[in-house]
Amino acid sequence: MEKTLNFLTSKDSEGCGMKEMKEQVVSPKQFKKEVSAISDGTVIDHIDSKSTFKVANILSVQNETQMVLVGMNLSSKHLGKKGIIKIGGRILTQSEVNKIALIAPDATLNIIKDYEVVRKFNVAIPDIIESIVKCFNPNCVSNHEKIQTKFHTISKTPLKLRCHYCERTMKAEDIELV
Predict the structure, then answer these.
(1) What is the rounded distance in angstroms from the CA atom of residue 101 to the CA atom of residue 48?
(2) pTM of the model
(3) Domain range 128-177, its CATH number among 3.90.870.10, 2.30.30.20, 3.90.226.10, 3.30.450.40
(4) CA dihedral sign of residues 94, 45, 67, 29
(5) Band of the pLDDT at 12, cuts 50, 70, 90?
(6) Of 8-17, 64-73, 144-153, which gets the smallest average pLDDT?
(7) Distance between CA atoms of 47 and 64, rounded to whole angstroms?
(8) Which of the two residues, 41 and 1, has the higher pLDDT score?
(9) Which are the contacts of 166, defined by CB distance < 8 A and separation ≥ 6?
(10) Between these two residues, 25 and 106, which has the higher pLDDT value?
(11) Which of 16, 85, 108, 177 is 20 to 30 Å apart from 40, CA to CA?
């Protein structure tokens, strides 16, 4: 005998703002597919749990019109606790992937097409980072002139970046995205 899940859904039955609650019964498999599967889009997995909302903010998920799922404190063999973000109908830009790499260097990206993973890769911190990090040196020329910021990656673990212009070295905790 297949187990079922009961959950409540609501709808405005007469357009008057009063919501009618209706109980639905579905199989766990159907519930999982309804809640978590995306037909097309991007899944960012293996985010350090503490960084999940930072990644969500980088991606401005609050402005999405298709399904977005943000989960954190999920069990992970590798990280202990992890976060995951699923965004329907969207493929990330290289700039977004680079920003995610700085905030969540262990993250994995999955590109989904017709409910199948068509591409999977780990994010990687680039050797040269342009236009996505602000120099923390208030006297740096990049903070006073209209030039794009540029950093060289000195170390990926622990993360250390050197400003191309003032040559100051920044640690992960000093990084501010632009």
Answers:
(1) 11
(2) 0.76
(3) 2.30.30.20
(4) positive
(5) very low
(6) 8-17
(7) 20
(8) 41
(9) 135, 137, 139, 140, 141, 142
(10) 106
(11) 177
Statement: residue 69 has pLDDT above 90: yes
Tokens 């000195």 sit at which residue? 154
Average pLDDT over residues 53-82: 92
- Tokens standing for 90? 């969207």
The DSSP-derived string for 64-112 is -SS-EEEEEEEEETTTEEEEEEEEET----HHHHHHHHHH-TT-EEEEE
The structure tokens 């700039």 sit at 95
Q: Domain 37-122 is in which class?
A: alpha beta
Return the residue matching tokens 């978590």: 36
Mean pLDDT value across the chain: 85
* Residue of 56, 57, 89 whose CA lies nearest to 71: 56
Kindly list the domain boundaries of the chain, sorted by start residue.
1-36, 37-122, 128-177
